[in-house]
Amino acid sequence: MKKRIFSGIQPSNVIHIGNYIGAVKRWVESQNDAEKENIFCAVDLHALTVPQDPKMLRERTLELMALFLAVGLDPDKSILFVQSHVTVHAEGAWLLNCITPEGWLKKMTQYKDKSAKQEIVLTGLLDYPVLMAADILFYDTNEVPVGNDQKQHVELARNIAERFNHLFGETFVVPEPLIAEAGARIMALDDPTMKMSKSMAHVKGHSVNLLDDPKDIERAIMRAKTDSGSEIRFSKDAEKAGVNNLLTIYQVLTGKSQEASELDFANARGYGDLKKAVAEVVISATEPIRNRHKEIMTDRAELERIMRVGADKARVISEPRLADVKRKMGLILP
Ligand code: ATP
Ligand code: LTN
Fold it and tell me: Is 326 marked active-site?
C-alpha cells in the first residue's frame, strides 16, 4: 500500500528559502515518488493564531497556493487545498482538544518562544499543535515531511493518536516525522544563531524569500553574517554557524555531497567567493519559480478551481474518519 504523506505551511508571509529547503522542495520530491500519496495544505487557520490583517491573509493564501504550483506541485498528482475549506480540521481539533491534557501544550518550545513575543497570547496559539494533529491524523497520515522546528509537534500528534487509540480502540495511524538530513534548519542570514523565520521577514537581511528579485537575493547573501576567519567547511562550532549555513544552502540546492561542496571552495580566496556562489545558486533555483508564480497569479479563476477540486478530494478522505471518531466518542451522527 502507498504511504500517505501530509504536510502544511502557513500563509503567514511569503515563504523563504528555509521553508523551501526544509519542507516544500522535499514535497515536490515526494510527489514524484510512486510509493507515496501526497496531501499538501495551506494552513490558514494556523496563521490566525497570531493577529493577521484579513485582506492580507486572503491575498497571501492565494499567493501560497500559486507558489505550490510554481515550485512544481501538480494538482493532478497531489491533493492541494486550503485548510479552512475543509471543516474536518476545525471540528477534529475540537474533538482532540477534549482528550489532550493542557500540560502537553504548555511544554511546546514553539509556544514558549512565540508567546513570549506577544502582548496578548491567544488561546489558539496554545492550541496550535492540536489543530496540527487534526490535520495529520484525520488523513491516516504515515509520514509528515517538515523542518526540524516541527518535530516536537509531530511527536505530540503521535501522543494524541496513541491516547485516542488507548481510550477508544484502534483508530488513528501513528505518524512519523520526516526530517531532512541536510537543511532541516536553515539559519537567519543576519544572525546564524537563530532559525530563518517567516515572522521575521520584515527585518532586512534576515531571509531570502522565494519571490525576491535577484538583486535583493544577492544583497542579502553578500551581507550574511560570517566569522572573522576564512576556512570554508561544514562545522558544528557556534562561531562557524554562518559559513555552515551558507554551505548547507549551497549543498542542498546543488544536490551535491558535503565533500563535493567543500571541494568547490578549496581554492576560494575568502568568504566573498562562497557568498557569490551561494547567491548564484539561490538565484538560479528561485528565478523560474518567481516567473511561473507571476504567470499563475494572473489566472485567479483557475487558482480558485484548483483549490475547490483539492478541498473536495480532501473531504472524501477525512470526513469518514471524522464520523468514525465522533461515533466512538459518543456523539449521535445526524
Ligand atoms: P513562522 O515564523 O510564521 O512560524 P516559519 O518560517 O516557521 O513561519 P512555517 O509555516 O511555520 O514557517 O513552516 C513551514 C515549514 O517550513 C515547516 O515544515 C517548517 O518546519 C519549515 N521551516 C520553517 N523554518 C525553517 C528553517 N529555517 N529551516 C528549515 N525548515 C524550516
Ligand atoms: N505547524 C506547521 C504547519 C503545519 C503542518 C501541519 C505541518 C500545520 N499543520 C500538518 C505538517 C503537517 C508549521 O510549519 N508551523
Answer: no
- Domain of 9, CATH number, reads 3.40.50.620
C-alpha cell at 233: 567547511
Mutate to test the pocket of ligand 2, among 150, 152, 173 (most ligand atoms within 8 A of CB): 150
For ligand 1, atom 7, the nearest C-alpha belongs to 197
- As a whole number of angstroms, the distance between CA 124 and CA 130 comes to 10
Give the model confidence (pLDDT) of 90-133 as tens digits.
999 999 999 999 999 999 999 999 999 889 999 999 999 999 99
CA-closest residue to ligand 1 atom 23:
19
Whether residues 55 and 141 share a domain: the answer is yes
CATH of the domain at 211: 1.10.240.10
Contact assessment for residue 79 and residue 310, using Cβ atoms and an 8 Å cutoff:
yes
pLDDT tens, position by position, 245-273: 999 999 999 999 999 999 999 999 999 99
Q: Does 190 map to a domain?
A: no
Prediction pTM value: 0.95
Residue 216 lies in a domain: yes
The three three-digit cell numbers of residue 71, written as one number: 515550485
What residue ranges line ligand 1, CB within 6 angstroms?
9-10, 12, 18-19, 21-23, 146-147, 149-150, 184-186, 195-199
Residue 85 near residue 318 (C-beta atoms within 8 A): no
Percent of the chain with pLDDT over 70: 100
**58 domain-assigned:** yes
Query: Which amino acid, one-letter code, is at 307?
Result: M
Q: How far is the CA of 208 from the centre of ligand 1 (A)?
A: 13
Q: Are residue 250 and residue 125 in the same domain, yes or no? A: no
Residue range(s) defining the domain that contains residue 210: 198-295
- What whole-number distance in Å separates Cα of residue 6 and Cα of residue 199? 23
225 included as an active-site residue: no
Tell me: do 137 and 225 sit in the same domain.
no
| Same domain, residue pair 46 and 165 | yes
